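Title: Prediction job returns without error message
Component: structure pipeline
Severity: low
Priority: P3
Assignee: unassigned

Description:
Job completed but the reporter wants confirmation the result is attached to the right record. Sequence as submitted:
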Amino acid sequence: MSWLHHEYSRRKALATATGLAAGALPVSAAARATALPRDSAAVTPTAAAAQFTNPVIWQDFADIDIIRVGNVYYYSASTMHYSPGAPILRSYDLVNWEFAGHSVPVLDFGSKYDLSGSRAYVKGVWASSLAYRPSNRTFYWLGCIEFSRSYIYTAPSVEGPWTRLTTIDNAYYDAGLLIDSDDTLYVSYGNTTISVAQLSADGRTQVRAQQVFTTPSSVGTLEGSRFYKINGNYYIFLTRPANGQYILKSTSGPFGPYTMRQVLLNLGGPVAGGGVPHQGGLVQTQNGAWYYMAFVDAYPGGRIPVLAPVTWTSDGWPVVQLVNGAWGASYPSPVAAAAPPHQAAPLTGVDTFDGTFLKPTWEWNHNPDNTKWSVNNGLTLRTATVTNDLYWARNTLTHRIQGPTSTATIQLDHSAMRDGDRAGLALLRDSSAWIGVKRDGGATRVAMVSGLTMDGNWNTTGTGTELASAAVQGGRIWLRVTADIRPGAGRPGTFSYSTDGTNFIRLGPSFTMGNDWRFFMGYRYAIFNHATQALGGSVNVSRFELTTP
């Protein structure tokens, strides 16, 4: 059944289908600190157009937590098995977003996150929260990993460095972190049964926990906590996956009692073929207006953010502003124009892998072997795994797909590949396909391969079948993948190559991307290089370009 119509929790789904659990991304404190952090002391809001259009980003950024610090907005999202984890986006107008960093530098939660002996697909960072604490000018990230422990990381700025502050032996499922006006740290969390925990002043330990609400059976499942203090009242914003949003309100403190009100249910969304906007967070602009950033299930691309204004009733309940009874395709822009405008770095364009670090647009499939890759003078990938299964191959580097349609092109130097090596560009998910270079018996071919599959427990069921190939000469080739991730029946991915960077030749049939929700993350473009015989080979990617029509 499609996740768009699936009304029981992600936790139940994962526990039964995969033995794992995925969670919602929690929300950080209320009106978002008035003090400016070190990285936002001299910023100016961007010039905003009269209207913005939903989705504000057509990329996979799910389980939204959104905060404002001074004049800057920050947005945190889930990443599951991708590393580094918990990306942070930055905006000056709530509409135009750029990458800023990651809260979890490495997934050091066990060897399976290194693809060592076992795998961590659909585990990892799926329940996290971002907050800013004015008293020590520090950002906090809180996340629960695999229902076992919760982790807190801190940083002086969103760019980092992020370091682990503590590990708490309580599983704050779908946690929302609130830094109260008196500087006390609280966490709301849970699935159906909602609890609140108070942390110690240094944030390292739990000092109190109490159940504060039980979801009525008529509602079903509530999860995905976001915790706020607004006008002296405490609010826990909760989602009913995947078609509703509810809010709890307490006038008597963070431990309640709470009363509940429905925010939306089965509301029409702004993305054709997509689901109901849900599971996000509230944020207040500099001029006092409120907005709700939610996500829409839009597979095969993933879960994409949409934005709508919010007003409040006289007795203190939020109301989403609708257009013709549905979430609007467009609204007036949240932030008034200012000069000079701040231009957000685009989420598309060219990366030549200059500098000494990967840009934060990139995430590895599981943790990489850092001895087997480098940047500056292009991206060099030395083979890190001997396998015939791409899902086991380390150092596969991924990039979110830009919707509704986009094209990724890489320039690949394959002259240092060895016999048995495979390198190329994939559409990566639980059903995958790729175009790439095969080196066998001293001969080099470009091939299109499909039929890479996993089952619902994320075990490999197909390692791929070559559907087309052509001999290539020389040591350089351009590989191209075009993806149409609009929800619907088509969902095609197409593959082509070039030997001169100008004239591209289609290779193989169209690949139909899957749209099952259970993998949660959407399709990604993925650059890979792995061995099937022995280590020692390498490739260099001198250029990656992501374009839209």
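Comment from assignee: result matches the submitted record. The radius of gyration is 23 Å.
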